[in-house]
Write a structure and sequence with these properties.
single chain, alpha+beta, 3-stranded antiparallel beta sheet, 5 helices, 3 strands
Amino acid sequence: MKKLMTVVLVCMGMFAFSQNKNAKANIEVDGVCGMCKERIEKAAIRTKGVKSAVWNVDTHELKLIFDERKTDVKTISKSIAAVGHDTKEIKATDEQYHSVHACCLYRDDEVKKDHEKEED
């Protein structure tokens, strides 16, 4: 019986330490400007367990460092969708999407064109 308990405790210990407290992930997040960047990064950072979030306006890539013991990519994606930005995994509702500033309506082709002109 003691051997069984020891084996169980060792297995539990290995499982507890198997999650990475500095996990890295990259996810695609839709947006078009600096205001989007600020909103996306804030939403990610405010998610419990996220240590770093940097979104690139040109590539739409969000680089994350987070504690897997406290959160996961799906939870972070939900936080970002809640402030109006789509990810590959979670799409913002129409209500969430329309809560962003008019210049940040990234689903609108005219808004995309306006932002492309600014870059040239």
